[in-house]
Amino acid sequence: MRRAGRRSRQPPEGSLMENGVGREQGTPEAPAAESTPGSRPPRPRPRLVFHTQLAHGSPTGRIEGFTNVKELYTKIAEVFGISPTEILFCTLNTHKVDMQKLLGGQIGLEDFIFAHVRGETKEVEVTKTEDALGLTITDNGAGYAFIKRIKEGSIINRLQTVCVGDSIEAINDHTIVGCRHYEVARMLRELPRAQPFTLRLVQPKKAFDMIGQRTRSSKSPSEGRVCSGKETLRLRAQGPATLEDGPSPFEEEAARRVDDLLESYMGIRDSELASTMVEAAKESPGAAQLARDLDSVLGEFAFPQEFVAEVWAAVCHPKDEQK
User: What SUPFAM superfamilies does its record include (predicted)?
Assistant: First the structure.
């Protein structure tokens, strides 16, 4: 992940910094386990403390002790005295609405978290003159689907009030809060042509230097990812968060290809979902087995058979795609 736009971060008074992560001064170290001759004592797990701000401006807070995105939002909300439902999404190391810096399932131990909260609500009427609206949808993992990309020259591109980062709250007064990104994308695809419909959108609250921008993120090999070779905190929907090495260049490239396939087939982008599918494909002997594996853990997505075959080829035979 590129680090452009990162704000400098100083350790709070009365704390020490270990591996870029705050540790309270005076916090007792974990007692060393007795070791037998020739054995290596276990490495104590560091106390992970991350620094955070509200993207439109706030004091710096510190959070710790979360294992998934919902818990992360709850911790941020507690620091700033707001409801977790006020948070639309988070970016890493920039306060701007930059979809290439979107927080996904991994956080680098030195990353600074910026929370983008609800701003103004707006309604826009859209007439579907083509099958595709030109929207790519993602979600925050906590009930809000939002716009990650707007295709140049598309129907939505011609509507100046619609921006990347806008949360889609309702379609024709039917609330979609709590729906996953693929469900929202399917609803939009199934809307009839030539019949106007209304989108109710919530834009992120903006700081002064963000007013007027209408971002359209471009594809990036490192979109939504942290830098390779560094430890990251991996957030999981089920089970505890784990410390892992950052993705290898191969894993980053494979995840990018799968993310592109998700956008092409389903109209969504989801770097964490793409990484999960890469891990599954690497363990599968073929596309048929991958389809069964994905159906057992991600059956709600109802991935088309041809899509799964392309995912397996993109991960296991990437050179074939370039011929």
Answer: PDZ domain-like
Q: CATH code for 49-204?
A: 2.30.42.10
Query: pLDDT of 268-319, one tens digit each?
Result: 999 889 988 999 999 999 999 999 999 998 888 989 999 999 999 999 987 5
- Burial level of 85, CB count in 10 A (0-12/13-18/19+)? middle
> What is the rounded distance in angstroms from the CA atom of residue 70 to the CA atom of residue 143?
9
Q: Element (H or E) spanning 121, and its range? A: strand 113-126
Which of 161, 157, 154 is closest to 199 using CA atoms?
Answer: 161
d(CA 71, CA 239): 12
Which H helix or E strand runs over 308?
helix 305-316
Burial 116-146 (b: 16+ CB within 10 A, else e): bbbbeeeeeebebeeeebbbbbbbbbbbbbb
Q: What are the backbone angles phi and psi of residue 190, rounded to the nearest 5°?
A: -85, -5
